Amino acid sequence: MDLKKIVEELISTFEKAGKVSLDLRKKGLIKEIKSDNTPVSNGDLEVNKIIVKKISEITPDIPIISEETLDNKENTNLKTFWLIDPIDGTYDYINDLDEFTINAGLIIDNKPVAGLINAPAKKRMFYSYGDNLAFELKNEEKIKLGTLYSQNKTSIKFVSYSNKIKPEIEKIYKEIGVTDHIRMKSSLKFCVVATGEYDGYVAEPRACEWDIAAGHAILIHAGGTITDFNKKPILYGKKDFKNPSLILKSKRLSNGWTIKNNTNHYCICFDFWITFICICKKLYQK
């Protein structure tokens, strides 16, 4: 399967879906509450049609699981399939905020192998199709993810889905050395960890597989990692498509970077230059 070809064929469709989502919002959305008490709009449904139609044309033999349809959700033996969340962050979408995203993740053997996320209100498009093959399209520029670490050398910043951090998550923050966190909606959290803008994200079991599959692929293809609280890998096609706990880490954290290590590095450098200056001073005095 040519993952690169599949993903690149979908990029223009995601950009079109993003434009449609914004156009519909500008005209005024038709909103209703679903049976699970979450909001949905005609924008969610229209974006879903656009994405599903194109994916069905490109990969007709691969089942599609979408948040907004019932198709294939009773299948308990899925190994290769698409997971689609046409609008993740519907609250932001219907309230004229900008952190909502359009998502599709391809799962093969219950693992994410490709992902696309468009944040149309932010004009940011992310996609990936293999190790070290994660990218962002921003202002028509293609940027490879995972090539640059965060320039922040004195803190570890995480994103969170709430300003109020629960005790279990606070404990993990302390273990990792998190110094600050900022609330952020939707799968955009995965993207800003993949870019290195933030260092990670922690969540107890919540939401569903279609909320995280695309972001999971993009993050790991950018060199980051994602596990549950017990450091076990995240697999897909589980009963009811429910998520376990999550710990996301950026590439630099996944590679063992810590504030302490960085401080030690600066101390070593400082000691070196002090010693060097002292030697030079003695030689000059002679």
Structure description:
The protein has 3 domains: 142 residues, Fructose-1,6-Bisphosphatase, Chain A, domain 1 (2-Layer Sandwich), CATH 3.30.540; 104 residues, D-Maltodextrin-Binding Protein, domain 2; 26 residues. It is 38% helix and 23% strand. Helix 1 packs antiparallel against helix 2 and helix 5 runs parallel beside helix 6. The chain is of the alpha+beta class. The chain is built from 8 helices and 14 strands. The protein is globular.
CATH architecture of the largest domain: 2-Layer Sandwich
Stated plainly, the CATH topology of the largest domain is called Fructose-1,6-Bisphosphatase, Chain A, domain 1
Q: Tally the helices: what do you get?
A: 8
Derived from helix and strand composition plus strand pairing, the structural class reads alpha+beta
Major sheet characteristics: 7 strands, mixed
Q: Roughly what percent helix?
A: 25-40%
Across the major sheet, the strand order is: 3-4-5-6-7-8-9
Question: Based on CA inertia axes, which overall geometry fits?
Answer: globular
Low-confidence sequence ranges: 263-270
Report the average pLDDT across residues. 91
What's the CATH class of the largest domain, please?
Answer: Alpha Beta
Report the CATH superfamily of the largest domain: Fructose-1,6-Bisphosphatase, subunit A, domain 1
Radius of gyration: 22 Å
Tell me the number of structural domains.
Answer: 3
Order of helices and strands: HEEHEEHEEEEEEHEHEHEEHH
Question: Which percent range describes the beta-strand content?
Answer: 15-25%
Number of strands: 14
- The CA-CA distance between the termini, in Å, is 72 Å
